[in-house]
């Protein structure tokens, strides 16, 4: 059986025929029949890469190797896997199509019987600290964070693919993503401001430090750990002034 397998071209084969009391209920006859089924397979062509060595431990495994659509030994013609579809290959065309459809009333919610793959993001303003974790982990750049005098978190429904990475990475649990079709926003391509806050400036030098939500949360955590006095006040200082305070305290 082993020589016949090698003659047919699969390469080195190690076949361990199962005994009757095998837990898989396989038998030597099963293995013999499966080896015999190799005769229907064609020998690989000259340009075909030699097949790897196979370790067959039982009838079930051998059957899977022979008959499996992806790993079958005798699959002479194998369709290569389809190339990964880049987001830019279809999403702009879909957005353009939806933009035309959005001119009609009522607005469509499905295309060719399928729900439209567009999403909206919601931020719980009582929890969000504008830390930027969602923006840093978004794989499509649907979230942007402007950190100037006013810290703003903006969202683009055009770019969002609904992966919910931002939901899972938000340390405050402040984000939710829902499948929502906003035709006007989608057609215009505008970004929506989901959260914003004026940055607090350093008490000593006036340099912007961070937004009040984040600083207040840090101060609350410090006080819950028993930190009091000027140490808590240092939260509202820039890094340079913090070092100066630590140096002369």
From TrEMBL:
4Fe-4S ferredoxin-type domain span: 119-148, 151-180
| InterPro entries per UniProt | 4Fe4S_Fe-S-bd (IPR017896), 4Fe4S_Fe_S_CS (IPR017900), PSI_iron-sulfur_center (IPR050157)
- Pfam families found in the cross-reference section: Fer4_7
Q: Which is an annotated GO molecular function term of this record?
A: metal ion binding
Query: Is Cell division one of the keywords?
Result: no
User: Does the keyword Magnesium belong to this entry?
Assistant: no
Q: Which UniProt keywords apply?
A: 4Fe-4S, Iron, Iron-sulfur, Metal-binding
Q: What name does this protein carry?
A: 4Fe-4S ferredoxin-type domain-containing protein
